[in-house]
């Protein structure tokens, strides 16, 4: 009976409002249960991860010890089972851990999930389960993937495929319209052009947008079918950037970098000619304005300075080097840079063969310097849209005795400097009629005549008129060029006078000799006229006697 009563007391539930002590008669007042012992511990429920996850509706704060996977104490925080940190055990402390081993301890995940780092509740870095690392991106696609904080934007991407001008505005005497006629669009099936226009009228298309501090770019495709006097002009805030004209011009792609600011881009077609010629139109397509993303990667080690390159040695050790001694390419660019290109050594464009020239352009296409649009009759033409002059006055030749120009075309001829202030030792010319009479004038054909790499057939060669330089050298040596000054790369700054492979003649310097000859001949003619007049007078006197 006594045992039954004791069991009844133990199994009966009733509220307890004091502390319970096991192994102590004075439990701590702050505890509801105080277990005290010196050679035994408190044993919590032990189970596998699967058994833990099978607990139905676990209470917040429920504690267990997990035997498998990542063993340790776990408590339920109301949402997930969370391991309890033990300083030198399984969890990482904010102040660091002790007793760790790189072969067994890691910071990350044990399942096939990405590992994410963040600040201010925002992800900033991710290590993917595929070992790709991303900074500022949740989807790294490379072993190290950086994404700009400010992404590129496209304020305008107009291909006119909606058969409207979109957000562009149009005005002038006649508006711009869309067109699907063959040849009047660059891509897709629709482009834009000015409407029917007559003499002294204009038609324009415009767009205004703001470019952020990161800068941007504008690009578009352009064509024309009109007289060269009728032009399409592209301006930014009223400042002309380029113009196009011509008959059935092929589509050209135009691109221009932009710095921060608010701009109005305008394409204006002006008809100057009288009458209807060709299509009397200009065409635009694929107008696109993009803004640049913010810089994504910046490397600093205290030795990084302007005009230095980051280079690697054979062991992969990277250092900053001066571009002047690096002998490699450098492409400084940005909002304040003029997109410079630097290289030390010879450069060849259009072919991968070695070259002996500082800049060698190879190929059958035209080469443009500056910004131009001219109608061409052939290929391999070098176009220069601005003045062309040597860097140093009166020190550079155009062509050499070895590499000569075939023809030089000019509207007003060649102007020779003849300023008296630049001359010294001025003396009367001794050459004259006697020397001119000694010169042998000839007609001839060149042994070899080329147009580019094409050799002109013998029957197609033209007769040329001139003198023989070797013969003139014996009579008027000053007009013959036999030597030239050369500078070699292995000894820069030092010029050597060398005999030319081919001697040349300066025909313009013969003009003063011809002038002197005419003057001498005029004196002789005048003397003969006077003598003739005297003889006539004497004859008349004798006749009248």
What is the share of helical residues? 10-25%
From the coordinates shown, what is the CATH architecture of the domain at 156-291? Sandwich
Number of strands: 33
User: Which residues sit in consecutive blocks of at least 5 with pLDDT less than 50?
Assistant: 371-379
- Supply the CATH superfamily name of the domain at 156-291: Galactose-binding domain-like
| Major sheet | 6 strands, antiparallel
Rounded to the nearest angstrom, the distance between the terminal CA atoms is 200 Å
Q: What oligomerization state is this entry in?
A: single chain
- Indicate the proportion of strand residues: 25-35%
CATH fold naming of the domain at 156-291: Jelly Rolls
Radius of gyration: 46 Å
* Derived structural class: mainly beta
Q: Mean pLDDT, as a whole number?
A: 82
